[in-house]
């Protein structure tokens, strides 16, 4: 099968007018030879400013997709482009620069337990050498964006799960990445809290950040009405512009 | 900012890993002390060579009553024999080799003997007649001892020709062995230090994998991620080098003082020689720790 981006989109790419933020070209990922591929010939474009849900059963390859964007792993076949650049051609010493342009959020928050909310977010700026003045100015701003004003000095264990995820999101966007990857960010949260997190992600998306979110949460997908890409056994079986969570593979969504 | 940040990371890493850090300090301290001791012993040999090779003399001992060598068969040296020996020492044939000639009488020999063995009870029992008179010959080139030895060993009235350098070489031999033993211990201990540093860094990397994972994700450079670990090892090793240097200084200062009092004419090295050894110890400690932590991190810290 040929890759099938819409003709208009393909033309735009050819003319160089619009470069996809993330572009997968026939990407196959084989972790070990004996089992079947985690991703199998996936072709996909995610445009600048888009919000994309990545859905599919457990083991369908969602996390693998995210790892390939981050160059945490290399594609076995095919090419992954981030902001127009083939990540396979990025030398290892330039990989940090690639990752500075991408924020990541996980299901398990991954906060540093011995650092305060402020320090957790500041950490992401310190390690890439931002000045103290810039950090003091930016961190409170970002904490406000995710709805955590006044909780600067709390420790992670003094926060609810939803609040901890907000800290993780603040940390992911504090360096103003063009892409935010979220791997089941609401997986550990109740529905109400999850909707709060989705509002934050939506606001970040409104500000121009491309968001890719892997999720199992049908309520969220159905409420948000964003683009939905469904993976099954490593292949894209559905790509709906304003999709819903469950649908037959041939479902037309509106 | 980055500097303060790295310092903070090192401090927290070392606090978390305190027991291991202390053991790295101790092991590098012991190994570097032995490295330093080996170096100082070599310097001691050099110092003694420089000091003594100018002063060593060949002693031509003359026959006394109870000499047993063949050339003394006719009894104690006679005046004619003594004159002949002195004339031969000052002859043109030997002038190329002989620098100075000094005569030491039996009475002078007794005075020197008493000086050298001041605290020993045998001094009282020895009389001037038992000690041989001698010519003390300073050589132009101390290595050319053979020439004098050949020329005089069968000369009538000469009991024995002795080269003081031989005693020195024997002493140097012992010091050399001590220095090699110290070096051997140093090598074994250094291997131990390297392995211990590698283990420490590995544990440290493991206990901070959450931090380093986040650093990687937000795009921290390899250097920033690895630097705190490498510096942790290097700082521990440098602390070890500092304690080793202090120990060597104390040994030289107090041990050396005591030795120089007991053997004033030996020419012992002083704390000054540490100026050469100490920088080498610090450099060696830092290199060992730096190299072994970098190698460990390559395997155990994903960046
Ligand atoms: N590091 C790895 N080594 C070997 N196999 C792996 C590795 N990571 C993932 N896999 C395999 O690849 C396939 C896809 O895994 P992936 O984690 O991408 O799924 P997922 O869609 O994220 O699932 P979930 O919804 O449970 O998180 C699975 O079959 C998994 O067993
Ligand atoms: Mg997953």
From TrEMBL, chain A:
Coiled coil: none annotated. One of its GO terms (cellular component) is plasma membrane. Residues 22-254 form the ABC transporter domain. Part of the ABC transporter FtsEX involved in cellular division. Has ATPase activity. It is a peripheral membrane protein. This is Cell division ATP-binding protein FtsE. PROSITE patterns: ABC_TRANSPORTER_1, ABC_TRANSPORTER_2. Homodimer. Forms a membrane-associated complex with FtsX. The keyword Lyase does not apply. SUPFAM superfamilies: P-loop containing nucleoside triphosphate hydrolases. Belongs to the ABC transporter superfamily. InterPro entries: AAA+_ATPase, ABC_transporter-like_ATP-bd, ABC_transporter-like_CS, ABC_transpr_LolD-like, Cell_div_FtsE, P-loop_NTPase. It is found in: Cell membrane. The gene is ftsE. One of its GO terms (molecular function) is ATP binding. Its main location: membrane. Gene3D superfamilies: P-loop containing nucleotide triphosphate hydrolases (3.40.50.300). The keyword Plastid does not apply. GO terms for biological process: cell division. Keywords: ATP-binding, Cell cycle, Cell division, Cell membrane, Membrane, Nucleotide-binding. The lineage of its organism: Bacteria, Bacillati, Actinomycetota, Actinomycetes, Micrococcales.
Automatic annotation (TrEMBL), chain B:
One of its GO terms (biological process) is cell division. Keywords: Cell cycle, Cell division, Cell membrane, Membrane, Transmembrane, Transmembrane helix. Residues 185-302 form the ABC3 transporter permease C-terminal domain. The chain crosses the membrane at residues 21-45, 171-203, 224-254, 274-297. It is a multi-pass membrane protein. Residues 56-161 form the FtsX extracellular domain. It is found in: Cell membrane. One of its GO terms (cellular component) is plasma membrane. Part of the ABC transporter FtsEX involved in cellular division. Belongs to the ABC-4 integral membrane protein family. FtsX subfamily. Forms a membrane-associated complex with FtsE. This is Cell division protein FtsX.
């Amino acid at each position: 099968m040929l890759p099938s981006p819409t003709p208009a989109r393909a033309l735009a790419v050819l003319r160089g007018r619009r470069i996809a933020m993330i572009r997968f070209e026939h990407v196959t990922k084989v972790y070990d030879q004996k089992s079947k591929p985690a991703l199998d010939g996936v072709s996909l474009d995610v445009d600048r400013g888009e919000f994309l849900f990545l859905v599919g059963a457990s083991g369908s390859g969602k996390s693998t997709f995210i790892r390939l964007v981050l160059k945490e792993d290399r594609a076995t076949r095919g090419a992954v482009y981030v902001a127009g650049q083939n990540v396979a051609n990025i030398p290892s010493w330039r990989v940090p620069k690639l990752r500075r342009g991408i924020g990541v959020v996980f299901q398990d928050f991954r906060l540093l337990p011995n650092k305060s909310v402020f320090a957790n977010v500041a950490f992401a700026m310190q390690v890439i050498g931002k000045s103290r003045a810039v950090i003091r100015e930016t961190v409170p701003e970002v904490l406000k964006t995710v709805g955590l004003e006044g909780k600067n000095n709390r420790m992670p264990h003094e926060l609810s799960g939803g609040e901890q995820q907000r800290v993780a999101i603040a940390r992911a966007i504090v360096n103003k990445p063009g892409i935010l990857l979220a791997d089941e960010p609401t997986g550990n949260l109740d529905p109400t809290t999850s909707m709060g997190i989705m509002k934050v992600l939506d606001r970040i998306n409104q500000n121009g950040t491309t968001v890719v979110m892997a999720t199992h949460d049908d309520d969220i997908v159905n409420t948000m009405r964003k683009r939905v890409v469904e993976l099954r056994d490593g292949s894209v079986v559905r790509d709906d512009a304003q999709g819903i969570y469950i649908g037959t593979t041939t479902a037309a969504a509106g | 900012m980055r500097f303060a940040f790295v310092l903070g990371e090192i401090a927290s890493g070392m606090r978390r890993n305190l027991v291991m850090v202390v053991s790295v300090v101790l092991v590098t301290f012991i190994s570097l002390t032995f490295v330093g001791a080996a170096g100082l012993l070599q310097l001691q040999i050099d110092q003694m060579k420089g000091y003594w090779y100018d002063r060593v003399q060949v002693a031509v001992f003359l026959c006394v009553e109870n000499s047993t060598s063949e050339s003394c068969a006719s009894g104690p040296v006679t005046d004619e024999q003594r004159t002949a020996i002195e004339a031969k020492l000052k002859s043109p044939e030997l002038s190329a080799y002989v620098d100075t000639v000094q005569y030491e009488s039996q009475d002078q020999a007794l005075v020197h003997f008493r000086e050298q063995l001041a605290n020993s009870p045998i001094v009282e029992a020895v009389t001037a007649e038992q000690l041989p008179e001698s010519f003390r010959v300073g050589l132009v080139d101390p290595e050319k001892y053979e020439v004098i030895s050949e020329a005089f060993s069968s000369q009538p009235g000469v009991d024995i020709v002795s080269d003081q350098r031989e005693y020195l070489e024997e002493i140097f031999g012992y010091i050399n062995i001590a220095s090699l033993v110290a070096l051997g211990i140093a090598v074994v201990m250094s291997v131990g230090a390297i392995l211990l540093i590698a283990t420490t860094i590995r544990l440290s990397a493991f206990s901070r994998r959450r931090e380093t994972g986040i650093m990687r994700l937000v795009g921290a450079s390899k250097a920033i991620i690895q630097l705190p670990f490498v510096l942790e090892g290097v700082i521990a090793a440098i602390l070890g080098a500092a304690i080793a240097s202090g120990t060597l200084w104390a040994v030289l200062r107090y041990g050396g003082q005591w030795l120089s009092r007991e053997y004033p004419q030996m020419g012992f090295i002083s704390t000054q020689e540490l100026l050469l050894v100490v920088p080498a110890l610090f450099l060696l400690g830092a290199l060992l720790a730096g190299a072994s932590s970098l190698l460990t991190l390559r395997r155990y810290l994903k960046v």
